[in-house]
Amino acid sequence: MKKFLKCLISILLLCYLVGAVAWSRLQARDAMCSGVAIVVLDSLNSNFVTAHEIARELGDFSNDAPSMKLTDIDTDSIERRLGLIDKIESVQCRIYTDNTVRIDIDPLHPVLRVFDRNKSYYINKDGKRISATARYHTDLPVVSGHFDSTFRAVSLLPLVRYINSDSTWNALVTQIKVDGPNNIILVPVIHGHVINIGDMEHLDSKFDRIRMAYTDILPVKGWNYYDTISVKWGGQIVSTRRAKALHHTVSAVDLEAEHEEPDLGTMLAGDTAGVVSSNAKRSN
Predict the structure, then answer these.
(1) Spacing of C-alpha 169 from chain mean position
(2) Within the chain, where are the H helices?
(3) 220-263 pLDDT, tens per residue?
(4) Most-buried pick from 145, 149, 168, 254 (CB within 10 A)?
């Protein structure tokens, strides 16, 4: 008898669960949307996108949603549609237990601003870009130069990430000027000179030599002594003096096992070049 009662109770509980699930699904099928909430997660206050703009992009959805069944609302379609907007980094659309639809918008997170002739735009870490307007403003590394399909501004992202990862370089470099893929120029906060790193290969070696120039050479020679410091050639620090009438060359010593000959014709400024090594700079 006890086994029969236990079996009967189990069957009744199972029937109850099946009925409850069926009833809840029926209720959900007929449940009406109680409203739409658009939330812009703009912690940087960049104003790249506003809730009003998102509502406008969705057309009549915000107004029509309260008269729609939840089952008729395609959250995936909303995410795909909004994800195509250049000002949006990511979007999530969910239906909550209170029958509201919430759309979370993560605006574009730019990592640099590009000035290309008469154009200006922002780029995020994935290369997604948005045209710059007076409405948007955020303090970012600035890149200037002319870019095309063979050399795009997005190619500079590894360099920007390298600079941003080091507090010293992040504080020092105010602008990146590009005269071509092999003439990338860093403009430091210290006025009077620029730094030519060539291309973006061997960044560790190049920035080690830049650090050497700032710690061992410029404090001795003077911060305005050179107008261009170049680390574009393997194992060397090549400089051009500001005073063109002066002719002074510091002996060259290869700092590494690289033997690429410097092409002084590609120097940006000045006509007198000096190749500085770790041994030569300490003797000055």
Answers:
(1) 16
(2) 2-30, 51-57, 61-64, 75-83, 157-164, 167-172, 203-212, 218-221, 278-283
(3) 888 888 889 999 988 889 888 876 544 443 333 343 433 344 33
(4) 145
